[in-house]
Amino acid sequence: MKICYISEFAKPYSIGGVETILDQEARYMRDKGHELVLICFSSLNSRFKLNIEKDDIFNRRYIINRDPKIDLRNKIKKFLNLIYSYLNFRDLIMINTILKSENPDIIHLHYIRNLLLRRYLFSKDNIIYSSHDYSFICPRGGLLRRKGKICEKPHIVCLLWQWLSGIKRCKRIIAVSNFVKNMLIKYGINSHYVYSIPNFIDDDPLSYDGEKKISGDIKFILLYVGRLQKQKGVHLLVELIKMFKQEDKVELWIVGDGEEIENLQCAAGADSRIRFWGRIKKEKLSWFYNNANLLLLPSICPETFGLVIVEAMDHGLPVIAFRVGAVTELVENGKNGFIVDIGDIEGMKSKIDLLRSDVKLYELMSSLNYIRAKSFSKDNHCHMLEKIYHLVSASKKTR
Questions:
Q1: Beta strands in the chain (DSSP E)
Q2: How far apart are CA 39 and CA 9, in angstroms?
Q3: Contact 329, 178 (CB under 8 A)
Q4: C-beta separation of 108 from 3 below 8 A
Q5: Tens-digit pLDDT profile for residues 130-181
Q6: Rounded to whole angstroms, how far apart are CA atoms 185 and 192?
Q7: Which is nearest to 226 in space by CA: 290, 279, 291, 179?
Q8: Cα 386 to Cα 395: distance, rounded to the nearest angstrom
């Protein structure tokens, strides 16, 4: 079977959640003997040039080079660049040419910003789309309105956005959680077209193999891993840590980068209990999970899945998160962590204090999380995905 993956982002040109999932899926399918092709984008080389390469995963890797980076501080250039990225025909023509040449059995789309290109791809009978975010139904991509409130129903602009992208044309959509599946259905997608296949974590040789222990004599480390954006709510964690006394021996470790880094550092000031580690390579994240005591997820936008939650669970970390999106599918309140209302940092602090004082509860949650994380395996995910591939391939051959 020939599978063509298409994604705006792919390793090694960028590293993130989408890139990691695509990379691991492709490695699995390669080991199963499938022929793999990748179409991705890069701005590392000269503009408008198409590079064709081969590596140990993909038989052919088509790299479409975008324009060199522009000065996004110029508002006019930023606006024009945004319009171009959503509505340019050049990408559509180039990808159409590649697909005609390759004639793949499966086209697996992970992420594309271009609305016209999405509309074209969604009309294909052999397309499968993995919905990693809400960009298929929300122009902002996070289901948040201007004042930070969660969007409950689509605005007329959102409906126009959906029509432009042609999402309703796609007959096979992979939702990474039941929450995303329900949102798709709520926004008018036929439920028969949506498959729920949760994301996964790769086997980590450095994950802990036992129970985490805590003691009042040593520091209690609170960990955040992710992008530093307003909708991720990291600023609330800075407020949270200031609620603890110095003698409480509580520290906050912030792993990640993003546009909010300067604002967060300014808010943290000279507080030595707040440590910014920057962006850490995935293979080095285990050290942070192993040395932390608790994962905090303060997102104020609906999470589509929450991969860092499962990664933390695999290292025996209890989790405290806001009640939003798919988080409640991973964290059972009072069993393997705690769920508190959005923005309730006092409630979050009370749960932290509870886990610090109740060693048995902490160790029970730690043990349960380690066991549960094993169900989110690459083999389970890719086995379900391969079934869909065979279904699509069989239907293509009968036409």
A1: 2-7, 35-42, 50-53, 60-65, 106-111, 127-131, 173-175, 194-196, 220-225, 250-255, 274-278, 294-297, 319-322, 337-340
A2: 10
A3: yes
A4: yes
A5: 988 887 777 766 677 666 667 767 778 878 887 888 888 898 999 999 999 9
A6: 9
A7: 279
A8: 14
pLDDT for 159 = 81
N-to-C CA span, the chain:
16
Global pTM? 0.84
88-133, pLDDT tens digit by residue? 888 889 999 999 999 999 999 998 888 888 889 999 999 999 988 8
Structure tokens at 261: 């880094």
- Is 90 exceeded by the pLDDT of residue 68? no
Mean pLDDT of the chain: 87
- Name the residue with tokens 């869909």: 388
**pLDDT at residue 207 tops 90:** no
The closest of 121, 134, 125, 106 to 37, measured between CA atoms, is: 106
Query: Which is nearest to 153 in space by CA: 138, 140, 167?
Result: 138
Q: How far apart (Å, rounded) are the C-alpha atoms in residues 238 and 327?
A: 21
Helix, strand, coil fractions of the chain, as percent rounded to 5: 40, 20, 40
Which of 218, 290, 220 has the alpha carbon at shortest distance from 251?
220
The Cα-based distances of 48 to 45, 63, 116 in angstroms read 9, 10, 18
Tokens of 185: 């259905």
Amino acid (1-letter code) at residue 254: I
CA dist., res. 129 & res. 197, Å (int)? 12
Q: What whole-number distance in Å separates Cα of residue 323 and Cα of residue 321?
A: 6
Handedness of CA 389, 394, 395, 399 (dihedral sign): positive
Nearest one of 318, 317, 310 to 291, comparing CA atoms: 317
Q: Are 316 and 362 in contact (CB under 8 A)?
A: no
In order of start, what are the domains of the chain with their CATH numbers? 2-200+377-398 (3.40.50.2000), 220-373 (3.40.50.2000)
Question: By three-state DSSP, how is residue 346 classified?
Answer: helix
**Whether 386 contacts 105, CB under 8 Å:** no
